[in-house]
């Protein structure tokens, strides 16, 4: 649920005000189904939950020149913005690839130096995981799954890949790639 919450809050924050269909359209356009486990039905459930928790506010959109039924338009509350940043920071240190992917999608909302610190923290967690995995005993003829060399090998390969990706992203952020929102505001 935290990945869905992060994506929904991020979509609304990017737009300022948004209705559920626009959030769904963002998710479809961003192809989140290819890099997260977010499903279309979970987006509307998240909107309802976020509204009931005071993270977003809803108001019926004005009739204006649009034909058809009015829709609820949402904006992120102060509490919702704090939740977005809490989820974003947690995602950028998460060893879970789905949460981390959502964090990378919105990392420009944080100051560059904070993203660097969070990525360094994630790298440390992954390095500790690698040390642990490489220390696990394995048996040629394992009596239990945790001692299977192929299983341990799969996890070592996965964590090595995650560590390499984190290192690459960290190097790019440190090299000045990407436009961070705080730097755009300072330039104005």
Automatic annotation (TrEMBL):
<protein>
    <submittedName>
        <fullName>Transcriptional regulator</fullName>
    </submittedName>
</protein>
<dbReference type="InterPro" id="IPR036388">
    <property type="entry name" value="WH-like_DNA-bd_sf"/>
</dbReference>
<feature type="domain" description="Transcription regulator PadR N-terminal">
    <location>
        <begin position="12"/>
        <end position="84"/>
    </location>
</feature>
<dbReference type="InterPro" id="IPR052509">
    <property type="entry name" value="Metal_resp_DNA-bind_regulator"/>
</dbReference>
<dbReference type="InterPro" id="IPR036390">
    <property type="entry name" value="WH_DNA-bd_sf"/>
</dbReference>
<dbReference type="InterPro" id="IPR005149">
    <property type="entry name" value="Tscrpt_reg_PadR_N"/>
</dbReference>
<dbReference type="Pfam" id="PF03551">
    <property type="entry name" value="PadR"/>
</dbReference>
């Amino acid at each position: 649920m935290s990945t869905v919450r992060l994506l929904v809050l991020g979509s609304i924050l990017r737009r300022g005000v948004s209705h559920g269909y626009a959030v769904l359209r963002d998710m479809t356009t961003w192809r989140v189904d290819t890099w997260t486990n977010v499903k279309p039905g979970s987006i509307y459930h998240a909107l309802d939950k976020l509204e009931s928790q005071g993270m977003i506010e809803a108001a019926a959109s004005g009739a204006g020149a649009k034909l058809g039924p009015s829709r609820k338009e949402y904006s992120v509350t102060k509490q919702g913005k704090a939740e977005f940043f809490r989820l974003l920071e947690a995602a950028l240190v998460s060893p879970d690839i789905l949460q981390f992917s959502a964090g990378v999608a919105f990392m420009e909302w944080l100051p560059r130096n904070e993203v660097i610190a969070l990525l360094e923290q994630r790298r440390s967690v992954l390095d500790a995981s690698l040390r642990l995995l490489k220390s696990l005993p394995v048996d040629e003829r394992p009596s239990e799954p945790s001692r299977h060399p192929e299983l341990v090998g799969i996890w070592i390969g996965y964590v090595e890949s995650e560590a390499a990706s984190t290192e690459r992203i960290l190097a790019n952020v440190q090299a000045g790639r990407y436009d961070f929102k705080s730097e755009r505001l300072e330039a104005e």
